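Illustration: Glycosyltransferase.
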Amino acid sequence: MLIVDVLLYTFIVVVSIQIIYYLLIFGKFSFGNEKKRHLAKNISVSVIICAKNEAKNLKRLLPLIIGQDYHSFEIVLINDGSTDKTLKVMERFKALHDNIKIVNVKNIEVFWGNKKYALTLGIKAATHDFLLFTDADCEPLSKYWIRDMSKHFTSTKSIVLGYGAYKKVKNSGLNKLIRFETLLTATQYFSYAQIGLAYMGVGRNLAYRRELFFNANGFMNHMHLKSGDDDLFVNQIATKDNTTICMTPNSFTESVPKQTFKQWILQKRRHISTAKYYKLKHKILLGVFYVSQILFYILSPLLLVVSSLWELITILILLRFISAYMSLGLASKKLKESDLIPFFPFLEVAIISVQFFIFIKNILSKPLHWK
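Result:
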């Protein structure tokens, strides 16, 4: 029975690791509150939107940005070599609004298809030191988006991580899966930021100081990679002192999720392909959590079958699920994703399986990148 004993002790360690992650690490976000009430800042903001063949989405997005209730902001629109009417849509809005600036990026051989090159030109064209980023297929959920994100800048906080949600689609299992993965990812990067280990942000809702960008030589450390203008850059420049989070509902943005499983897998392959370039400490923390998830779901049913200590195993399983439900349940309420709570175990198993599939797929072939 030596093998069974080894499996049991391994399971105890795995459950302990999972509980530590859910209660102590993720709990920093789930159970905590913002340390202090931030006051609105008298700062000017440059909202930067990089678009490639997004004419239709810009028609919907730009009125929402223009209508923001904020005293001083400009909108920097970057046309990244579009072949549709994106540039014409931008010019139409610019003709009506003085605070819109257009950066028309034409493809060049060295940086062809590299969003980071286009973003760099947009950042250089920005007038203000405080930059707020979103995507053309995204939209702020309130007219106070700029206000709430910008008020988190302080004399020491130069990076603000926001939440980028996905629209809810009724009776769609894929939609629930996409939103659960987004919820879990946000819970992790918010939590790590709060314990001084910020490792990523999402370009759908991210703010940082222009000065910080140039002091770090922009995206030069990873310009050869077509992904990572958000997570790799934050991983590079974030410290325990210069990064904060914004979790107010007025600061959320929302995007239309992928409509097919194949499209979503391609998107996630692009995102996950950058994780291997994270700092070692972040890769270890993320890797330990993921491996412990896999082992939990493998060892749980196995030990219930082969071990005589089924009462102990059942208690450990319950403790782990209670910890996960407490942590993710509270996080989902903060991020307005409470409808996912009843489906947590099923979605978690599905996400673990998808992530493993993507990991293997990315080893065998490189994912496609910026449109």
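Reading the tokens back as a structure: The longest strand covers residues 73-80.
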